[in-house]
Amino acid sequence: MSTGTGTLLPRALIVPALLGLAFLVLPLIALIARVQWGTFWADITSTEAAQALGLSLGTGLAATGLCVLLGLPLALLIARSSPRTAAVLRALVTVPLVLPPMVGGVALLFLFGRRGWVGSLLAEAGMALPFTTTAVIMAQTFVALPFLVLAVEGSLRATGTDLEQVAAGLGAGRWAILSRVTLPLAAPGLIAGVVLSFARAIGEFGATALFAGNAPGVTQTMPLAIYTAFNGAGVTQGTAVALSLLLLVTALAVLLLVRGWRGEAPRRGVPG
Prior knowledge:
The protein is mainly α and 272 residues long. It has one domain: MetI-like (MetI-like fold, Orthogonal Bundle). The chain is built from 12 helices and no strands. It has helices at residues 14-33, 40-44, 47-79, 83-98, 101-112, 119-124, 133-159, 162-169, 174-202, 206-211, 222-229, 237-268. Helix 4 packs antiparallel against helix 7, helix 5 (101-112) packs across helix 7 and helix 8 (162-169) packs antiparallel against helix 9 (174-202). The N and C termini lie far apart (45 Å).
């Protein structure tokens, strides 16, 4: 008799399961079917598409760097805090994940806009953040940062503190423990977090639209260019479909990379 768990499921669940799978997969197949392969290269290398693609990649990399700079210390703090403090901090970090991106854009605008708490101070100094390329990076960082923090924090929590305590007992200082013990153990989570953050950053739409605007060559990223095209302006719809395919391929690559790192992590063990 088979002991597989799949055989224990009622057969009536197969139909809705297949319908759910089809609902997720068929739209992507329809997108791929609409790609005009004959003009694909010309579509993604047109001036407007190249601007949107270059801006997305540049700001995405900058946002990912900010996520590492800010998120790694935050993840370390959460992982090494008491359970109650960690739960509160983790909940605060998770909020942007469940918050509609449009709301995040409004929140950034109210904080960094000309009349915002920080924006008013910047305005007095002759600086403005909204509707600039910097605003794109900030919006992307806002939505992508939780992915890195939670990935690294989960990796650190899984490794525990035993090796850190052993290193401390042998006389290692805090920075030595961090660089030689903690960070190597957290490497799989850090790599996964970086990849996920980059993918989320280049796919960001709502917060960017409200906080940074949609100016070609300045704040118009790939998602905004796609949206504009299907509203009858900007790049052609053929170019929009080609850019959509690039984002889809990026998403699939991210999934494969994260899956690969998670699969390798248990086999790597603890560095000697």
